[in-house]
Specification:
Radius of gyration: 47 Å
CATH architecture of the largest domain: 2-Layer Sandwich
CATH topology of the largest domain: Heat Shock Protein 90
Structural class: alpha+beta
Shape: elongated
Number of helices: 18
């Protein structure tokens, strides 16, 4: 026996003898023969002599080591469970279905604000449930009882006027015959979880509202820009159109100079309008690229011809070169490619006072039917300080304020070029030294045209384009007999269009709205309609629908209808086509552009003669 235990037992027995206790019940630690400590339960009865004097004790020892350990483990387990339940705010409970006796764990009492150990009933449990949730909770319990299935329900409880959320889970324990004996389950405080969920819901609702508001703002901005574009393009069509008519008439040198200034100013304003619209569409993520076949050499030829006069006027040499390795028959968005190259070449011409501007195209990679092409625009201009290079592709920035005043520009061109290059799967950059010129470059990813498409083009290589067709007397006569109906409400734009069409050599009747167009088409079998979209009384979309309606009284339901409108966005073109129109020309309208579209749709298929007459001769 351990020494401490010997001392303790000696003291206990001394007290027993002194007090003449009759019974002994002790737990004593002793040493087993194997050397381990064992706990003994010692019970004894007194031994008395004939005179009733205590002479000793007779007793038995029982090894309770294992039992006491199990009891200790059980206590520790209960303590651990209680601590775990307190941390998780989960209490457990059981309900004797036969007696209605309800037992709660320590955490259940705490959760419901009851003193531990006080009797509770199922009615108490129901009474704690929030009145608005009581029917729902009872239905869940009854359903589980009737179907012998577990239940899971979240509901509110009211504890000392405080509303808490709890999550109940439980199941029915059955006897061997399948009869219900007990409800066993847990109840968890999920108030914090519900508050978090409600907060998230409110946050999501706020985000949704903000998202809707942002979408509405973007939509409103897009509509505003579209309306502004329409309102600006309508008078711009008159400015540019009338200046072109003036330039075709007999003017003195001074008058011609003034008319050219008006024309160039109008074209500059049109570029600005287009840049603002493009930037807005890119910013809102609404700019989509086309995927169509094109000839790279033709694109660069067109750009060279377009900008050659500017280079010539500035005394500069403009050249371009395509590396032999670059495939020229590609698939992508030729319009946006043309826009980026034109922006960069135009920028180079603007900032180059003497020397040259060179455009080159080189192959970066050619794998799996995809070609990555690098375009470089090299100038001998003023160059750019290294400290300003990083700001070049940022919207509304210029190298410095003096540059803006001297050369003009909004700073949108390079920003738009950067975005377009990235949309085409590439990137953009610059190598420059102040005073020594600049090299702007960008890459773009294109698909190569399929062999079948290329073969088809080769098979038709004898076909000539509209510009290359040689006019014959017969085809001229046929073109001149075409009878066009023009629907345009703006008086100035009507005069511009009439002049263009009559100088082309066509017979034209003009009306001011869609209803008048319908009435004219019921009387005359025209060859083609040029239709403005935004008109009073009846707009161009509704008028087109009436023309295409086989039940309407127009003489030709299948007449070609060409939209000629100041609505210049891609979605506007799509809307025109969806409305039943055949093609689309945006204002300001140029005569050569209009001639090509008319030539495409007039049934004679004859090229339109683009001749000049004196203003007012019609």
């Amino acid at each position: 026996m351990p020494h401490d235990e010997v001392t303790r037992i000696g003291t206990i027995f001394g007290e027993i003898i002194q007090n003449k206790s009759r019974m002994i019940n002790l737990e004593i630690w002793n040493i087993h023969k194997n050397g381990s400590l064992v706990l003994l339960s010692t019970s004894g009865v007194p031994i008395l002599d004939a005179d009733g004097n205590l002479t000793g004790y007779r007793g038995v020892d029982k090894d309770i080591t294992v039992m006491r350990k199990a009891q200790g483990d059980l206590v520790r387990s209960e303590e651990t469970l209680n601590r775990a339940q307190a941390v998780a705010k989960i209490g457990n409970w059981s309900l004797d279905i036969a007696t209605g006796k309800l037992e709660w764990s320590k955490e259940s009492y705490r959760l419901f604000g009851r003193e531990e150990g006080t009797p509770v009933t199922q009615a108490d449990f129901v009474a704690y449930t929030h009145p608005d949730d009581r029917e729902m909770a009872i239905s869940a319990w009854e359903y589980a009882m009737n179907t012998r299935t577990p239940f899971f329900v979240d509901h509110r409880i009211v504890v000392e006027e405080e509303i808490l959320w709890v999550r109940e889970q439980g199941y029915v324990e059955l006897d061997t015959e399948g009869k219900p004996l007990f409800w066993l389950g847990t109840v968890q405080d999920i108030t914090h979880l519900k508050e978090t969920e409600l907060l998230l819901q409110e946050t999501n609702q706020q985000l949704t509202i903000k998202s809707i508001a942002a979408d509405e703002a973007n939509r409103a901005k897009s509509e505003f820009l579209a309306n502004m574009s329409h309102e600006i393009r309508t008078p711009m069509n008159g400015v540019i159109g009338m200046s072109s008519i003036l330039l075709e008439s007999g003017l003195s040198p001074e008058q011609r100079e003034y008319a050219e200034i008006v024309s160039r100013s109008g074209e500059s304003l049109l570029v600005l309008i287009n840049d603002i619209l493009d930037f807005s569409k890119i910013e809102s993520g609404k700019l989509e690229l086309e995927q169509i076949d094109f000839n790279l050499q033709q694109i660069l030829d067109d750009i060279n011809r377009l900008l050659a006069y500017r280079a010539h006027d500035a005394g500069l040499m403009l050249t371009y070169a395509i590396d032999p390795e670059v495939p020229v028959l590609l698939k992508g968005d030729p319009g946006r490619l043309r826009q980026v190259v034109t922006n960069l070449v135009g920028n180079a011409l603007k900032f180059t006072q003497r020397g040259s501007v060179t455009v080159s195209a080189a192959l970066v990679s050619d794998q799996g039917g995809v070609a990555i092409v690098k375009f470089s625009i090299v100038d001998t201009g003023i160059g750019i300080p290294a400290s300003r290079v990083s700001a070049l592709f940022t919207p509304f920035t210029q190298v410095d304020a003096s540059t803006t005043r001297k050369y003009g520009g909004t700073g949108l061109g390079l920003a738009i070029s950067k975005q377009l290059a990235e949309l085409m799967g590439g990137e953009i950059g610059i190598v420059s030294e102040e005073g020594s010129g600049s090299t702007f470059w960008f890459t773009a990813r294109f698909e190569k045209q399929s062999p079948k498409a290329i073969e088809s083009k080769h098979d038709n290589r004898g076909t000539t384009s509209a510009q290359d067709t040689i006019l014959t007397t017969a085809t001229k006569r046929e073109a001149h007999t075409a009878h066009i109906l023009l629907a345009e409400d703006n008086h100035i734009n009507q005069k511009v269009a009439l002049h263009m069409l009559k100088t082309i050599g066509l017979t034209v009747d003009a009306v001011a709205d869609g209803q008048q167009a319908i009435e004219a088409l019921t009387k005359v079998k025209y060859d083609l309609v040029l239709m403005d979209c935004m008109m009073p009384v009846m707009n161009g979309y509704d008028a087109t629908a009436r023309i295409r309606d086989l039940n309407s009284e127009v003489l030709n339901h299948h007449i070609p209808i060409i939209a000629m409108t100041a609505n210049a966005m891609k979605e506007d073109r799509d809307k025109c086509i969806e409305a039943g129109m055949d093609d689309y020309v945006s204002k300001p309208v140029k005569k050569d552009q209009l001639a090509l579209v008319l030539e495409k749709w007039l049934t004679s298929a004859a090229p339109i003669e683009n001749k000049t007459v004196e203003a007012g001769s019609y």
